[in-house]
Every structure is written in C-alpha cells, then in structure tokens.
Amino acid sequence: MKVNYYLILLLITLSSAVKAQNSWTEKKLDDKISVKFPKEPEKLVKNGTESYILKEPDSVAYSAVAIDLNVLAHLDSATLSQMKDNQEFADQFMKGVASQKPNYTFGDVTIGQWKTFTTYNVSGVDNKTKSTLFVQMIIIGSKIYTLSCRIPANMAPNKKEAYFNNVALLK
C-alpha cells in the first residue's frame, strides 16, 4: 500500500511546480472543482493527467491538478473515506510528497475541512532559494485536488490566501 501512496504523490508533485478579481481566469479541473488564476495558466498533460501552472513575473507560481486515486492507485472512494481523516495516513501521504522534493523541508500536514470535504494543508521551504511552497489538497470521493502556491523568500504570503480562496465547488 505504501508503494501506491508514493506513486500518487509522485504524480501530485510533478504537477506542482492576490485578491480575487473578476478578471481572474477560471479553469475547471473536472465537473466538481474549478479554480481561478490571476492570468491564463499553461495547461500540461502528463500521463493522462491535466494540470494548470502559472508563473508570474514576481516569481510567484501557482498550480492545480485533479488526480483520480481509484485509477492511479486503486483507492476507491469507500476505501479512501475510511483512511482520509487519519493523521497517520496524511503523514504517510506527505512523506511521499516530500520524497519527491528533496530540496524542501516540510512542516507537519494539517487535516482540515473545506465545505464538507477533508483537506490536507502543508508548507515547505526550499533549502536553496528559501521560497515557500504552500499546498492544499482537497479529497472528494476518490479524487484529490492539489493546489500549490510557491512564494519567493521575503514576500508576504497573501497571494497564497487569495489563490486558495478562489476554489469553487461546481456540484
């Protein structure tokens, strides 16, 4: 089972690389979630998974991806619902993410709620550039929606809050 977690996390981290305004560009990750970006993001497709990435001139970077864990790791929604609120599961999940980002030192993963759905929130600091990577994962059914925002060192993290607050539940 650990191998499945690490495989999932590899795909999540590969996809990772402001106040809400009406001019922001909305992208539907699927039929359940949309997220707004300050500008038009680049769409990448890797291993059949679509992700959106935006790098701003001030070096702030945003990314969003939806991954179906049932397809990727054979974790259906019933199985995932039994594990998702367990801190040990969240910690193990984060260990897989951290293993794919050896330049980063991550803090503890926090389990939370968005609407009625389980979230994992974590941040890490790049040991070389000192930029901070903020990650929010939302679990709905067998899918995990991963949003990330990388803020350069010595910049206030307010763009992260604006970005994470621009997630919308479609159904």
The gist of it:
By secondary structure, the chain is α+β, with helices and mostly antiparallel strands. The protein has helices spanning 2-15, 69-73, 77-83, 87-99, 158-164, and strands spanning 25-28, 33-37, 42-46, 49-55, 61-68, 104-106, 110-114, 117-126, 132-140, 143-151, 167-169.
Give a topology summary.
Blueprint lengths: L1 H14 L9 E4 L4 E5 L4 E5 L2 E7 L5 E8 H5 L3 H7 L3 H13 L4 E3 L3 E5 L2 E10 L5 E9 L2 E9 L6 H7 L2 E3 L2
Antiparallel strand pairs: 1-2, 2-11, 3-4, 4-5, 5-10, 6-8, 7-8, 8-9, 9-10
Which ranges are low-confidence, i.e. pLDDT below 50, for 5 or more consecutive residues?
13-20
Continuous helix count? 5
Q: What pattern of helices and strands is seen along the backbone?
A: HEEEEEHHHEEEEEHE
| CATH structural fold name | Protein Transport Mog1p, Chain A
* Morphology: globular
- Could you describe the largest sheet, including whether it forms a barrel? 8 strands, antiparallel
In angstroms, what is the radius of gyration? 15 Å
Assembly state (oligomeric): single chain
Which structural class is indicated by helix and strand composition? alpha+beta
Distance between the ends: 31 Å
